[in-house]
Specification:
The structure holds two protein chains of two kinds. In chain A, 19% of the residues lie in helices and 34% in strands. By secondary structure, chain A is of the alpha+beta class. Classes of the chains: A alpha+beta, B alpha+beta.
């Protein structure tokens, strides 16, 4: 997800007026006017989500339903995931690859039925993703869901909070999903709840008809434990748990092996597996799985307190450039700067001592295991 | 509405300067500036003894959002830096005009303070931004 370079007027999510009413500071993001923070501020929003529960508007993301006989095999030709073994209402993280093995986007796939999936893709990539789907899923039913908002409720108290509004869905475990109903203004409203997110905390994403989204958000915000959280804290929350941001940590020149996302490639789709390859760039990715990639995404522990930002140059001890920081900032939960970036393979081992250039000064950096703070999923 | 004490002088780049009784000048960032920056997580203060000219980049304030350069509002020698900010950078947010000061200068030409904005003009500048 990166800022759209387009000059066209910013789009609004169904919660736009609510953001303004809550006093959000709005910024352009992927073509949308989005709340970067609320009056609470990024730091307190971050901590609130880690300690209680945070509500995020992620309606800018693309929601797509695809269906038709043979859709499982057709979608498997676009992502290195064994979707045939994905049960109904279970989710998988996946990447769309290109012919060079680079990542076009990362996404969540949920099986809705034998011949139907629900996809959630990044906002900045959604037009391109939809075109990609239309080009490769010829003859299948592709429905871009424009009339639903998407809300994320995240944090250790998200479960208790959702239990008050959608008790059936509060039972969900990590990476599973379910249709549900929620009572809004006395009416039963259909929604779709999944147990996943982008903060490392337990929580949910709720797809709900746009006309009911504000009322639903207000019901959640009326609970003591729930606060609205903006994109600023969303970024520091995901960075602390080592999750990638498309357009920054992942792009078309980055393969899933380089990105440390081998776990997202099903074993059966790897070399030697019973359904090996069969997706764009499979040969290049297979070679990297077997022989290793020349560069790797790693976690970076920065000496001192100065945050290191995206783009900062990473160096070995003689001072040769070995890579760049792709995400960096201050980790409020860690209480220190946190960053991730790409380094050449010989420096990618945990414990490697490297350095970063910050305002002309060299600062010591250690390659560390991610996440920086534990993931607290309820499995 | 941000707080803009009338006894201070302000740079267009949002630093404040206070002439102390001993002739030194204390520098910090305004309430408006700290509010726009958001939560401050790190302050890189200048080195003691550095000689700076008005407008020089002398310090960096890092918030959760971004790094912002701090410019010397007047020229002089850096004679003190706020070391407490190393452990508690958030003081810049909570007390921008008191314990959140950044550094002190011995001015090379105290009349450079006259080039800065008074509180009323600075307030206007902030409203226009």
């Amino acid at each position: 997800m990166s800022d759209s370079p387009s000059n066209s007027p910013l789009l609004h999510t169904p919660l736009y007026d609510l953001h303004l009413a809550l006093g959000a500071k709005m910024v352009p993001f992927a073509g949308y006017a989005m709340p970067v923070q609320y009056p609470l501020g990024v730091l307190k929003e971050h901590n609130h989500c880690r300690e209680q529960a945070g509500l995020f508007d992620v309606s800018h993301m693309g929601q797509v339903r695809i269906k038709g006989a043979g859709i499982t095999e057709a979608l498997e030709a676009l992502v290195p995931v064994d979707l045939a073994v994905l049960p109904k209402f279970k989710q998988s993280y996946a990447v769309f690859t290109n012919e060079q093995g680079g990542i076009l986007d990362d996404l969540m796939i949920t099986r809705l039925a034998d011949d139907e999936f629900f996809l959630v893709v990044n906002a900045a990539c959604k037009e391109q993703d939809i075109a990609h789907l239309r080009a490769h899923l010829n003859g299948f039913d592709i429905e871009v869901i424009e009339d639903h908002a998407l809300l994320a409720l995240q944090g250790p108290q998200a479960r208790a909070a959702l239990d008050q509004l959608i008790p059936s869905a509060a039972e969900l475990r990590f990476m599973s999903a379910s249709p549900a109903t929620v009572t809004i203004d006395g009416a039963e409203v259909e929604c779709f709840v999944s147990c996943a997110g982008y903060t490392g905390e337990d929580g949910y994403e709720i797809s709900i008809p746009a006309q009911h989204a504000t009322a639903f958000a207000q019901q959640l915000l009326a609970l003591d434990e729930v606060e609205a959280i903006g994109l600023g804290a969303r970024d520091s929350l995901r960075l602390e748990v080592g999750l990638c941001l498309y357009g920054h940590d992942l792009d078309t020149s980055t393969t899933p092996v380089e990105a440390g996302l081998l776990w997202s490639i099903s074993k059966s789709r790897r070399p030697g597996g019973e359904k090996a390859g069969g997706y764009p760039g499979a040969d290049i990715i297979a070679a990297q799985i077997e022989n290793g990639a020349s560069r790797k995404r790693v976690g970076l522990k920065i000496n001192g307190r100065a945050p290191v930002r995206e783009g900062a140059e990473l160096m070995d001890s003689p001072g040769n450039s070995i890579g760049r920081v792709t995400s960096g900032g201050f980790g409020p939960t860690v209480g220190a700067p946190v960053a991730m970036g790409y380094v050449s393979a010989e420096h990618a081992a945990i414990g490697s001592q490297i350095a970063v250039l910050l305002r002309g000064k060299t600062i010591a950096v250690e390659v560390v295991k991610m996440p920086f703070t534990p993931q607290n999923y309820v499995r | 509405m941000s707080n803009t004490p009338s006894e201070l002088k302000y740079a267009r780049s949002h630093e404040w300067a206070r002439l102390e009784e001993d002739g030194t000048v204390t520098v910090g960032i305004s309430d408006f500036a700290q509010e726009s920056l958001g939560d401050v997580v790190f302050v890189e203060v200048p080195e003691l003894g550095t000689n700076v000219a008005a407008g020089d980049e002398v310090s960096v304030v890092e918030s959760v959002k971004a790094a912002s350069d701090i410019y010397a509002p007047i020229g002089g020698e850096v004679i003190a830096v706020n070391e407490a900010l190393e452990e508690e950078p958030e003081t810049v947010n909570t007390e921008p005009y008191e314990d959140g000061w950044l550094f002190k200068l011995r001015p090379s030409d105290v009349s450079e303070l006259d080039n800065l904005l008074d509180a009323e003009d600075y307030q206007q500048l902030c409203e226009d931004e």
